[in-house]
What we know:
Layout lengths: L15 H17 L3 H6 L4 H9 L10 H5 L17
Amino acid sequence: MYCASDxxxxxxxxxxxxxxxxxxxxxxxxxxxxxxxEVLAGNLKNAVLxxxxxxxxxxxxxxxxTEYMHGPYDxxxxxxxxxxxx
Length: 86
């Protein structure tokens, strides 16, 4: 059995370093397309899109909710989900 250490995972409090990294990533990402105005205008560079597709970016696969809703009902045992509620 694998147990992750306590320092791995999502921290509910965002640090300044995390915010800085996210802002820099967003700026670099937009710059790769020519800036925010180019993205908003829909003028995406084909070379950037081809590079993304070559490195594993895929189309979003939407689930077929109609098929799921017409399937059999599988009850879920969630008695341990909220142990404080009785």
